[in-house]
Structure formats: C-alpha cells, structure tokens
Design goal:
The protein is mainly beta and 64 residues long. It has a domain of 35 residues. It has a two-stranded antiparallel ribbon with strand order 1-2. The longest helix has 5 residues. The radius of gyration is 20 Å and the shape is elongated. It starts with a helix and ends in a 37-residue tail after the last strand.
Length: 64
C-alpha cells in the first residue's frame, strides 16, 4: 500500500493467471480491488505468454 501511495507517475500492478503451488497448477483471478480503479486511470494489458523451458533430464554420473 505504501508503494502505491508514493508512486509519482506510473504504478504497474501484475498478477499471474496460473500458478504452480506444490507441483499443482492453480488458476488465479486478479484482485477485485483492481476493478475499483477508475477506468480513466487504468490501462489493462495482457503480457505475452512466456515460453516454457524444457525440463532437464537427470544424468547419472560415472564414478570411475
């Protein structure tokens, strides 16, 4: 809250539509407080979807 009140020109709020919590994907919604912001003051943007990085395969190292 303090950072929001001290923003001079621009304040950027973000949220994740999907989060992975303890290995399980969970769909999330943005805070309903964001809807209280006057439409003239807000600019909603959708970020580009991040590329998923390929999972690394585990490699057994040789002992000798």
């Amino acid at each position: 809250y303090v950072a929001m009140t001290r923003a001079m020109d621009i304040l950027c709020l973000t949220y994740a539509k999907k989060r992975r919590i303890f290995g399980t994907g969970k769909m999330r919604q943005r805070s309903f407080f964001i809807d209280d912001i006057e439409k003239e003051l807000a600019k909603m943007e959708v970020a580009d979807r991040r590329q998923q990085t390929p999972k690394k395969t585990e490699v057994q190292l040789e002992l000798f």
